[in-house]
Design a protein that fits this description.
The chain has helices at 9-16, 24-28, 35-38, 40-59, 74-79, 91-100, 107-112, 129-138, 148-156, 163-180, 191-198, 210-222, 242-246, 252-290, 295-353, 360-392, 396-427, 434-460, and strands spanning 69-72, 105-106, 158-161, 188-190, 226-228, 232-235. The protein is mostly helical and 461 residues long. It is extended. The termini are far apart. This is SNF7 family protein. Residues 406-461 are annotated as: Disordered. One of its GO terms (biological process) is late endosome to vacuole transport via multivesicular body sorting pathway.
């Protein structure tokens, strides 16, 4: 019995899907066309489940090497075989329904379409249940007769692009390109180099196949992110605008540059191989010598090593020469981009300076008008300040007169207070000796006079 570690990855993943551990899987694997009328809710549920499952299995690369393309063939039905449920009976009808709704698109149709994004409006996995039910009631062109399963299976076998996965791959890749495309040559790819350098950056945990990369490059080119002629892919420079991206074209110099880059990669691979071979021959010669093998055999091995070393030196020199040429091309392309930017800047500046607003006569008129306006504004401020100063002027004589009146009133109030105190003292004369009363009144009078004098001195000061 196979252990969990030895179990086929596809089967292990199917086992993790909840429906495969319940009786529902028998319903999903059964013949579905007859249930469309008798049980439309169940039919729509099966359609939605198969859509999610097929998209998920394709994205994980569990059905084939392709992660954006679903291969509908006998191998697919066999791969989906499950215990007592057997093979999915209505897989052809399911594919027909998904093709009818453009959730699956024949690869040839997708690559030939001028607008591949039209095949997917929203994420398949995010579509609500009512959408699936609506597709059930409104679908057409799908055989649901007595032999629907067999008939649709014969018609629907082939390769289908999953548009939703293409959009997801593009959405994951595009934000990373600016950091990878700092130079002009770094933005040039063949399908093979695209797959080797960018294929692992698109969907989590998998690397796109070369066929996937063709589909993705087609999508990106029609969205304006790159130019693609079926062989060469040329991305727009980082932070490019839509107008500059739309003018992308693949030139002969781009093809020549890619040829040089491929030669450089080939030389690097050859150097690595020769380095490994030389180390192996050196070790073999040492082993032969330690085993006391014939001297001629040892010399032959050393001779082979010497020839490999000579060839290695040649390859290293060749790579250095190609690297020098590539560097010169890179510098020239960078200069070209810089000069193009400067030319665009000069044209833009000339356009701005030709504006009537920046003509000398208009500048002089505007400056004169501004000076007049500033003078008028100054006059207004001075007038307002004058009004404010007039309102703020104070009559010092009036202030002095008001102060004297306040001091006089204060003295009068103090005198009245002393008189009341004298009256109170006289009323209680029977209890207090006359001398003491007179002394207290005299002291109070003197104190009042002294306080008044001090108050007047303060005011005068």
């Amino acid at each position: 019995m196979a252990t969990a570690a030895d179990e086929d990855p596809l089967r292990a993943h199917l086992r993790s899907i909840p429906e495969y551990s319940t009786a529902k899987v028998n319903f999903y694997y059964s013949s579905l066309p007859s249930r469309k009328d008798s049980n439309p809710t169940g039919y729509s549920s099966a359609l939605a489940w198969w859509r999610r499952t097929l998209v998920d299995l394709t994205a994980r690369g569990l059905l084939s090497d392709d992660k954006l393309i679903l291969h509908v063939d006998e191998q697919l039905r066999e791969k989906l075989r499950w215990d007592k449920a057997g093979r999915p009976t209505s897989l052809g009808v399911i594919v027909a329904e998904l093709a009818q709704s453009s959730d699956l698109v024949p690869t040839a149709t997708y690559l030939a379409s001028p607008a591949p994004d039209s095949f997917s409006v929203v994420s398949l996995l995010a579509r609500p249940f009512w959408w699936s039910l609506n597709k059930v009631w409104g679908s057409s062109g799908v055989d649901l007769g007595e032999h629907a399963d067999e008939n649709e299976w014969k018609k629907r076998q082939g390769e289908y692009v999953v548009p939703d996965l293409v959009e997801k791959a593009a959405a994951a890749l595009l934000p990373r390109l600016d950091d990878l495309h700092g130079t002009a040559l770094s933005r040039l790819y063949t399908l093979r180099t695209f797959q080797s350098k960018l294929g692992a950056l698109c969907l989590p945990g998998v690397t796109l196949s070369e066929r996937d990369c063709r589909v993705l490059a087609t999508y990106l080119s029609r969205k304006g992110h790159c130019a693609f002629d079926g062989e060469v892919i040329k991305f727009a420079a980082p932070h490019s605008t839509a107008s500059t991206s739309s003018s992308l074209s693949i030139t002969e110099s781009d093809r020549s540059s890619l040829t040089l880059l491929n030669s450089l990669a080939s030389l690097t691979g050859s150097i690595d191989t020769l380095t490994t071979l030389i180390a192996s021959e050196r070790a073999r010669a040492a082993q032969l010598l330690s085993e006391k093998r014939p001297t001629a055999l040892v010399k032959a091995t050393l001779g082979a090593k010497k020839r490999s070393e000579k060839l290695l030196d040649e390859r290293v020199a060749q790579r250095a020469k190609v690297e020098e040429v590539v560097w010169a091309i890179e510098r020239a392309k960078g200069d070209e981009e810089t000069l193009s930017a400067l030319s665009l800047g000069a044209t833009t500046l000339r356009t701005v300076l030709s504006s009537p607003t920046l003509q000398l006569s208009n500048i002089e008129a505007t400056t004169s008008l501004l000076d007049d306006s500033l003078v008028a504004a100054q006059e207004v401020r001075e007038a307002v300040d004058a009004v404010g100063r007039g309102a703020a002027e104070i009559d010092e004589d009036e202030v002095e007169r008001e102060l004297r009146e306040m001091v006089a009133k204060e003295e009068k109030d103090a005198e009245e207070q002393r008189e009341r105190e004298v009256a109170d003292t006289l009323e209680s004369a029977g209890k207090v000796p006359v001398e003491a009363s007179v002394a207290r009144m005299a002291a109070g009078s003197r104190k009042g006079e002294e306080d008044g004098t001090r108050e007047r001195e303060k005011v005068a000061a």
